[in-house]
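Need tokens for this chain, all 255 residues.
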Amino acid sequence: MRVIVTRPAAQAQAWVHDLRERGLDAVALPLIAIGAAADPAPVQAAWQALGEHTLVVFVSPNAVEQFFAAAPAGMRWPDATLAGSLGPGTTRELRARGVPAAAIVEPAANALQFDSEALWAQLSARPWRERGVLIVRGDGGRDWLADTLRSAGARVELLGAYRRVASRPDAAQRALLAESLTAPADHLWLFSSSEAIDRLGALRPDLDATAWSSSHAIATHPRIADRARAFGIGTVHASRPGIDDVTACIQSIRP
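Here are the structure tokens for all 255 residues:
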């Protein structure tokens, strides 16, 4: 089975590389593109006030990339500020940009999911009353962590550091999409966001749910798996989001 990686382009290529290194046939078909925030001023202002926050949460590698792209020259991560990460990919991006490992808080390595709930499990024992928290994300997203921190007494700010927009598949990627519909048993969609599934539908608005009933997918979170089933994907497997877990899942289901 050919694995179709649907993450934004840069992350998709990294996943394709890692899957191929593990002996799997993988190809990228990004369904979401990442753009800079429409107004860069709030991101620049957030850097000036970075040390005022006890915690800055990054919801994805894209959040790290876009936030640090606006960093003033010579700016270092504040010693007293924690960096919250929702998973290993985000942590790698933080480390690559000089954030000390001791400053990063992330879900436990054996967490069932890498999400807001798993991060909160690592944060909940800390005192949050009147502590400043900045959550760096795209244009919109879940508010669960922000609401939970506010309930614990934190002063929470949300910062949209990037925009998620529809990707524009090239001719080869459109041909891949057509092949996946013609020979669904030979293709396996890898979804890491519910929005990617919606974008897939937008690429073929002429099709109804029955057109996808023979398709196969892996989803890296139960919510994403539910969305894939509602979309019409006939066979959906849930996996933990790490590369080794996804690889094991693929190997367990391919002919």
